[in-house]
Design brief:
Oligomer: single chain
Number of domains: 1
Shape: globular
Bound molecules: adenosine-5'-triphosphate, magnesium ion
CATH class: Alpha Beta
CATH architecture: 3-Layer(aba) Sandwich
CATH topology: Rossmann fold
Distance between the termini: 15 Å
Helix content: 25-40%
Order of helices and strands: EHEHHHEEHEHEHEEHH
């Protein structure tokens, strides 16, 4: 499975707090790398970063932290450095290499003010290096803020996670509506019902209008145990029920990439 004729395939993950976005994202990254051999670009676009921990990557510099360094340089390229060279320098600082994955972590912004600068740098970095990868995966913070920040603005597929709670399903529907209203370029919007019991199925598509597909993701005791031990998901068995679900979902939805 490739991202298409040399094209980058971009996946965004969204949903209410705690519904399993980062778990889905980390397993999707692992699956894509293990299946295709490609190095995946993973973007942790949540200021409360934890995608790196799930991918077994030590914390490094974040875009928020780099901002502090740039402030001391006046946010302009130092003398003798072009804007592009300056951006390349920021990217080198921000990229952390893991097993089959390059990770960029947004991180927090020190001090008051909006996240505009951090967002701009993050967007520039994504725009500048995405084309070097077959797959880009963006793990978003809870809620809908990332849609207006437009870090999700063009994705081949957006997976919106929810569990059985009404509030998380409503949140997922609102995300789909807002993405449509904002005319974001998202190929397919897919809702994923997480934490289902062993024999549980996802509700039928007509109960969740606004989505192009519905999938079920089962609860995994092994994932719960790893989280309690603060362990990453790098050694989670491929036979794990949730990992198998993620692999199947990603395969199906990557194949249905619009041309
Ligand atoms: N299928 C699953 N089986 C078992 N545990 C799961 C599953 N999916 C997620 N979890 C657990 O649920 C908790 C929340 O998951 P996760 O951190 O992925 O959610 P999130 O949506 O990224 O949260 P946040 O909004 O805080 O970023 C974690 O402890 C995770 O291990
Ligand atoms: Mg998360």
């Amino acid at each position: 499975m490739r991202g298409g004729e040399g094209l980058t395939f971009t996946i965004a993950v969204a949903g209410k707090g705690g519904v399993g976005k980062s778990t889905f994202a980390a397993l999707a990254v692992r699956h894509l790398h293990e299946k295709t051999g490609s190095v995946v670009l993973a973007v942790d676009a949540d200021p409360n970063s934890n995608l790196g921990a799930k991918l077994g990557i030590e914390p490094g510099k974040t875009v928020g932290g780099i901002r502090e360094e740039l402030m001391s340089l006046g946010e302009e390229p130092p003398k003798g450095m072009s804007k592009q060279e300056f951006l390349d320098y920021q990217i080198r600082l921000a990229l952390k290499e893991g097993n089959g994955v390059d990770l960029i972590t947004m991180g927090r912004q020190e001090g008051p003010g909006c996240y505009c600068f951090v967002n701009n740098v993050l967007r520039q970095i994504i725009d500048s290096i995405s084309s070097k990868y077959d797959y880009v995966l963006i793990d978003n913070e809870a809620g809908m803020e990332h849609l207006s920040r437009r870090t999700t603005r063009s994705s081949n597929v957006m997976f919106v996670l929810c569990d059985k709670s009404k509030s998380s399903i409503e949140a997922a529907k609102r995300i789909a509506v807002l993405a449509k209203e904002m005319n974001l370029s998202i190929g397919r919007k897919i809702i994923v019902f997480n934490m289902l019991d062993r024999n549980g199925d996802a509700p039928s598509a007509d109960t969740v209008p606004g989505f192009d597909g519905v999938h079920a993701l089962h609860k995994s005791e092994a994932i719960q145990a790893k989280m309690q031990e603060d362990e990453s998901l790098v050694n989670l068995s491929r036979e794990d029920p949730a990992f198998r679900d993620v692999a199947r979902i990603v395969d199906i939805e990557s194949r249905s990439k619009p041309s």
